[in-house]
Amino acid sequence: MRLTVNYLINEAVAFSEWFSTLNHVKLIGVTDGKAVGTYVEHAFQNYLNERYDMSVGSSALGIDLPSVNTDIKTTSIVQPQSSCPFKSARQKIFGLGYNLLVFVYHKEDTADEIFKNPPEQGYLTISNALQWRLQYKRVITLDNQIQGVVNFVWK
User: The pTM is what?
Assistant: First the structure.
């Protein structure tokens, strides 16, 4: 069966209802909105591809679903926004010239993995900025009971 815009709308609703019931383990701890968007968009494209005759595009090369002249965007409800390049000032006035399908998500991590596999006490922490933070004071005050940590004091 050939994908049409009407089928696309119905399938987007069905997909959203189904997809929101799943536990997306691959997204636990992911804070990069682009990664979440790519995950959702590819899942939807695969969902459609299993059901319809259609062409799948590339977000890098153009619209995601050229056979129905539709681009897919995914954004967080926390800050619902997206970038959309335009080719000319005419598009800013008269519109993009293609359809937009927007998925809006609310992501909550369960953090069950940490409870099931608690890490051993360590001396490195990760900030919300996803940077390694070395807690030097903790290492300096060690009494050398941790294997692999050697204190050396230069006098």
Answer: 0.66
